[in-house]
């Protein structure tokens, strides 16, 4: 639980036992093994060069705009590294080969053009490069929209909190 | 093998929806009860419900929030053979699946007990809606159910509902569209407290019911039944106690339950005058099939080879609608208590079909945090990102649940050569959807398309995938029935062949309606408990 949530509970005047329960919960979770700490994260699967390319690719998929930062700021490439490093063996080669193909394509043109080519037949991918795009885009989505930036700054999600009452639809649309 | 000399009045196996009722009823009635639970308690203060994805090891994408309820090797110790796309939800924790559920609790309708008489399929239950009505009424008051009486025959209402949940804007818009089609949509009835009740606080609308309610506003056996049983001083609770076999005396009656203590790694035994299985559809059947003896060579109470057969559950499917009216709205908190409204079965309103059964639709029980549309929209880049954001407030989600017919060839067996981590033969599941199931599901797709056309929306419907199940609603493997040749239990959940053995979890269902089974499981358990108490008074048990 973060400070925002704690303040919200106090503001709503939640019952004391509930507050104590939440404090206990926060305490108990202090030991939860969170592999994900971007500040200190060390690459486990991708090379520095692969990570660099992945960072640029995911930023092309979910870029910074005037509303919110993008995949680069949300460190989506590091999230991808963790998921692939700790995931299925069969996925690892898909990622390694996919980034290699993307790199070869980019050498001929540019990374942006390589991505455009990979995304060309998104609904019915046939080539290995096109199939890799599906994997890459889903990873970008998973990483970005589960990050603090994605949830709070981009989507401005208002929930995961404690309400004393649910307002419902007022006024009726 | 370690064995205590004490003989208990009742041994209850499993502490979920059925086991919680049984433990509470018997303990309060003065019986000495031993409750065996294969898992152990997870205190609500340990739940990860309110954690943000970025506070979890894998952002919650590897089911980290629920993994603590599936203890030991329970997720691996099962095998599927020659099966359609189905999954069994076997849990291992004090409270069973009531620890994390949406708690939707419709009653079965009168017609749901009479498929043979009314539609010429399956079998009638050995009891009627009228037989169960007082128990529905009692259990609803016991657990606290919010809702409203809408006067619909297809979902009979109780008399003591807590105030219904307020409707979201997407649900108000949905009602406008469904009104033009003559399809009712009503306030959901669910075991979520909309005001403080029975010493438990009201819901705080975080939407995390499926990850476990940290304040017990959602009913859970672990926090609302077992503590009350304990308070009587009559309950002995054994956790980490994985039941292996029901042991019988020379007459073939249950005399004890042997279990494996998964912590001390020791085989133990408890003696009891009555054994009640509440371990759910797969585990109760598995336990009975693993209980072979000279008197019961085919497994206990299974001379007719019915135990394990008639496995069925719900067809399940998700549909996503993004309502134009809500696109681009300023983000607002829609979490609530997952489902707030409910679409009861409606296909019967439009006359006779060339198939039997129907579907219900649970509305808006997915999280409002993650943008599902991102994986469904084509493209990438600035326009993609902006569109994902615009659509985020506009979600309307349908979870359709369809009836599946109970067929004898769909079954669970045990494999004596394939043992789990505690050296107990694992269950093996074989299941295929039938023609009727597919025809009904096909019609539900047609109906979803029609609803979609009445909503101003961008819809993502999944009408191409093969049918899948069982949405955690598996039932039927230890069925009750009038005929002892084609059933295992009588209408009081008592084994025809073993008078002091009862099975009151979902496995006792004769047939399944499209409705969520838990309230009916609990009502049947209450009824069985009353019967057992009366039989004990008469000296029959």
Task: Please describe the structure with a list of short key phrases separated by commas or semicolons.
heterodimer; A: 173 residues; mainly alpha; disordered N terminus; B: 541 residues; alpha/beta; 18 strands; 21% helix
Instruction: Look at the structure and give the mean pLDDT of chain A.
Output: 84
Uncertain spans of chain A: 1-31
Overall pLDDT of chain B, averaged? 97
Summarize the main sheet of chain B: 8 strands, mixed
Helix-strand topology string of chain B: EHEHEEHHHEHHEEEEHEEEHEEEHEEEH
Which class of secondary structure composition applies to the elements of chain A?
mainly alpha
Number of domains of chain B: 1
How does the SSE layout of this entry go?
The complex is a heterodimer of chains A (173) and B (541).
Chain A: H1 3-12, H2 16-28, H3 48-61, H4 76-85, H5 89-108, H6 111-118, H7 128-144, H8 148-154
Helix pairs in contact in A: 3-4, 3-7, 4-7, 5-6, 5-7
Chain B: E1 2-13, H1 17-28, E2 33-36, H2 64-67, E3 79-80, E4 85-86, H3 115-119, H4 129-143, H5 169-179, E5 186-187, H6 221-224, H7 226-231, E6 235-238, E7 241-248, E8 254-261, E9 266-277, H8 281-289, E10 312-323, E11 341-343, E12 359-363, H9 382-391, E13 395-402, E14 411-419, E15 425-430, H10 435-454, E16 457-460, E17 468-475, E18 501-503, H11 518-537
Parallel strand pairs in B: 1-2, 1-9, 2-6, 3-15, 4-17, 9-18
Antiparallel strand pairs in B: 5-11, 7-8, 8-9, 10-13, 10-16, 10-17, 11-12, 12-13, 14-15
